[in-house]
Design a protein that fits this description.
This protein has 2 helices and 5 strands. With 104 residues, it is an alpha+beta fold. The radius of gyration is 14 Å and the shape is globular.
Length: 104
């Protein structure tokens, strides 16, 4: 079976998040809980549905990942973009999700 993680978008700000082993929604894929068997995937799906019902997240999905040299990597390009930011230069000075946050 392929390893899987639960991802969603946080309802409060739309940021991509992943469920960690403690049941918290985290902003880094590398901190996500990895489901390696069917029972764990079923639990992730139920957790995602409950978080949606509780208005914490939207678009909760269990997605396939692989571990490459100890680093999680989504198999689908859509999920890679959600985890790592745009795949092309977006705008001068824009560094994707790694850019520092600035106060407005």
């Amino acid at each position: 079976m392929v390893s899987k993680v639960l991802t969603a978008n946080r309802l409060s700000d739309g940021i991509s998040v992943w469920l960690d082993a403690a049941g918290n929604w985290v902003e880094q894929l590398q901190d996500a809980f990895i489901a390696r068997h069917a029972e764990a995937v079923t639990a992730l799906e139920a957790t995602g549905k409950q978080a949606f019902d509780d208005n914490k997240v939207v678009d909760a999905n269990v997605v396939d990942v692989e571990e490459v040299n100890g680093t999680l990597r989504p198999l689908r390009m859509r999920e890679r973009i959600r985890a790592e930011g745009p795949s092309i230069p977006y705008a001068a000075g824009y560094n994707g999700l790694s850019s520092p946050k600035h106060a407005a």
